[in-house]
Each structure stands twice: as structure tokens, then as C-alpha cells.
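pls design
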């Protein structure tokens, strides 16, 4: 007699798989949509700054969503915020399945606003769920699960970039968006049926003022996260794809494929962060670990900027430097993802994680706008110098994080 193999798994593992699969599906389409919008509107003749502005509301509403989404998650439950995110993404994608004449900047910005809300509701819900599904006395397991979720998500985001370039070249913008809307709608229906109803709901209903974290560790880490992601997006979001297409002469397929491979490799490195940062020796990452890895990362964009400034094999320097930057940034990002889940208060975990990802979204917002403006005015090398500066600021803020954390210890709040 055949049996369902999933039935043999514990309830917590089944919920983890459901949350992860939802996160995976959402991330795949989110990455594809970003690449579709960048390449499609570049082909239509939009300037780098105009393309950056298309994502303005995406990032602004991401900031607001993370700030308020954590509060909603604590009051309503993470299952509801995750389902809300999936539903909003279906609506956002449907808004783009219109004739080309209707794809004006305000319309696309409105669709991107809904997509930004959806993405951050989904991410906040997924990261918060992990905290609740892993036993409190298993910090190394928590690090491993967070690294796996974060790394696999970014690998799939890279696959989404590849998928976006492929779909644009084959079925066109409207066909690609319609297919993704149908896929997300199916994932949403599955989550409505099977996701635990009260997952992440706080025992005591938090007041609205609780959206601002009272934890020094969470506040310092959030500030460091803001500058870390501004450092990535100030050159990666708009400047790099446009530079590859405009200066190096790459077509949409080549740009999408390269960025896909980069992000997939970046995600795979994230899954190995526990090995790279000493978990196997019994140590867990702390503030000193974050400072060290940020300091090393700051060197990478500075070296690439120097190579571009002095015209030292620009293509080779850029692509090779990008691989080094991706490896180092992946470890930094995974470290931060573990630390925030570790620092977050278990009762109302969505509040601390929501506040942290609000800072993350604010960093992306600043990086995205600066990416379009600085690249258009001063070029890619200037974007890279700003990237190095932002990483240095992240390292300095990490000096304020708790240190000397060992396996089994709870970091101070």
C-alpha cells in the first residue's frame, strides 16, 4: 500500500517545507519580474534614472510594509500576512497584463508598489516562521535553517533573472507576466488550505507603538543592514545591467543569463555560510564576525572602481570583481539573516524581524535611486565608490553588536 512520504514528517517540518516552497515560488517570479521590467523598458528607450524610478514605489512601500507588516503579523498571524502577500502579487502581475499603450510610468509604478508590499509581507512571514518552528535550545540548527532558506531563495532569485530574460526573448512581456500570475495564484490557494492558522500570532496583542524595536542589538543590526544593502543595490540594480547592455553591448538574453548565474552562485554561498563562519568549531557568529566580514567586503568594490577608473581590462575586472563581491556579500547577508532571527523576541517575532527588514528595504530604496542617478551622472565607477563607503559604514555599526556568543547562548536584547 502506497503511503504519503510527507505524512511521516513532523508537523513543524511540513510547515517549514510549505513556508519555504511558498517563498521559493514567490522569489522566482519576483526575480523574473525585475529583470523583465529593467530589460523591457530599456529596450523601449527609458533612461537609467527613469528605470530606477519604476522601482521607487516598490522600495518605498517595502519600507512601510516591513514596519507595519511585523505588527500585523504579530496580531493576525504569519500565515495571514504570507497569504496577503501572495494575493497582492497576483494583482500586481495582473496589472501588467495590459496593452503596451497602458504601460505608462505611473501605472507600472503602482503595480510595482503592490509587488513591493507583497514581496516584503512574504519574506517577513517566511523568516519569522523559521524562528517559531526551530526549538529555542537549538541555535546551530536555527543558523543552518535560516542559511538554507536565505541561500536557496537567492539561488532561485537568480534563476528568476534567467527566466525573465528567457521569457522576454521568447513569449514577450505580457505572456511572461500572465504565466507568473497563474503560478502565484496556485501557490496562494495551497497556502490558504494547508498553512497553520495561528502561526506567529503574539500571545499579547502588541500596541501600534511596538513597531519600533526596543532592542539595542536589533536596532544596531538594522542600521548595518541598511548600509549593507544600499552598498549592493547602488551599483547592482540599475547601473550594472544597463552598463552590460549599453557599454559592453550585451543583449537581453546575455544580461539576464549572467546576472542569473551570479545570483544563483550567491545563493549557494549563503547556504554554506555556517561552515565559512565557524559553526563547525562550536562558535556562532556575533558582532565581531559581522565586523570582520564587512571589512573584507569593503575592499572588493573599491578595487573594481580603481580598475574601471584606470581602464585596466574593464570587462575582466568588472566580471571577476563581481564574483568576489558576490561571494563576500553572500556571507555578510547570511550572517545578518541569522543574527536578526537569533536576536528577535520569540513572542511577536514578526515585530523585530519586520523592523529589521524595514531597514533592509530602506537600504534597497536608497541604493536603487542612487544607482540610476549616480550611473547616469558619473558612471559605474562612482557607483562602486559609494558601495565601498556604505560597506564601511555597515562595518562601523556592527562594532556595536553583542560579541562572544557561543553555541547555546541567547544574545542580549
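designed seq:
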Amino acid at each position: 500500500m502506497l503511503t504519503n512520504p510527507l505524512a511521516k514528517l513532523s508537523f513543524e517540518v511540513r510547515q517549514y517545507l510549505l513556508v519555504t516552497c511558498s517563498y521559493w515560488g514567490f522569489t522566482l517570479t519576483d526575480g523574473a519580474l525585475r529583470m523583465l521590467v529593467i530589460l523591457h523598458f530599456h529596450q523601449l528607450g527609458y533612461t537609467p534614472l527613469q528605470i530606477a524610478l519604476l522601482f521607487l514605489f516598490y522600495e518605498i512601500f517595502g519600507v512601510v510594509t516591513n514596519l507595519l507588516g511585523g505588527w500585523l503579523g504579530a496580531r493576525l498571524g504569519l500565515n495571514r500576512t504570507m497569504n496577503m502577500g501572495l494575493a497582492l502579487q497576483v494583482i500586481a502581475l495582473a496589472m501588467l497584463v495590459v496593452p503596451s499603450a497602458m504601460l505608462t510610468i505611473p501605472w507600472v509604478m503602482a503595480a510595482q508598489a503592490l509587488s513591493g508590499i507583497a514581496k516584503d509581507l512574504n519574506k517577513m512571514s517566511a523568516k519569522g516562521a523559521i524562528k517559531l518552528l526551530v526549538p529555542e535550545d537549538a541555535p546551530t540548527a536555527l543558523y543552518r535553517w535560516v542559511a538554507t532558506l536565505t541561500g536557496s531563495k537567492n539561488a532561485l532569485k537568480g534563476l528568476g533573472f534567467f527566466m525573465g530574460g528567457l521569457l522576454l526573448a521568447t513569449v514577450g512581456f505580457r505572456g511572461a507576466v500572465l504565466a507568473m500570475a497563474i503560478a502565484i495564484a496556485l501557490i496562494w490557494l495551497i497556502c490558504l488550505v494547508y498553512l497553520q492558522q495561528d502561526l506567529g500570532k503574539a500571545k499579547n496583542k502588541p500596541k501600534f507603538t511596538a513597531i519600533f524595536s526596543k532592542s539595542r542589538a536589533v536596532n544596531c543590526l538594522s542600521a548595518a543592514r541598511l548600509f549593507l544593502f544600499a552598498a549592493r543595490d547602488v551599483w547592482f540594480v540599475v547601473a550594472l545591467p544597463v552598463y552590460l547592455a549599453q557599454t559592453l553591448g550585451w543583449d537581453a538574453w546575455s544580461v539576464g543569463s549572467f546576472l542569473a548565474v551570479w545570483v544563483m552562485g550567491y545563493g549557494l554561498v549563503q547556504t554554506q555560510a555556517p561552515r565559512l563562519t565557524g559553526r563547525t568549531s562550536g562558535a556562532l557568529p556575533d558582532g565581531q564576525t559581522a565586523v570582520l566580514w564587512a571589512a573584507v567586503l569593503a575592499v572588493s568594490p573599491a578595487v573594481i572602481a580603481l580598475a574601471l577608473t584606470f581602464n585596466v581590462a574593464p570587462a575582466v575586472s568588472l566580471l571577476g570583481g563581481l564574483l568576489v563581491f558576490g561571494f563576500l556579500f553572500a556571507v555578510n547577508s547570511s550572517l545578518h539573516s541569522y543574527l536578526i532571527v537569533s536576536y528577535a523576541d520569540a513572542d511577536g517575532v514578526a515585530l523585530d524581524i519586520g523592523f529589521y527588514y524595514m531597514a533592509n528595504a530602506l537600504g534597497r530604496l536608497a541604493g536603487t535611486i542612487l544607482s540610476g542617478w549616480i550611473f547616469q551622472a558619473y558612471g559605474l565607477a562612482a557607483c562602486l565608490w559609494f558601495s565601498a563607503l556604505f560597506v564601511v559604514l555597515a562595518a562601523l555599526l556592527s562594532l556595536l553588536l553583542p560579541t562572544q556568543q557561543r553555541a547555546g547562548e541567547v544574545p542580549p536584547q
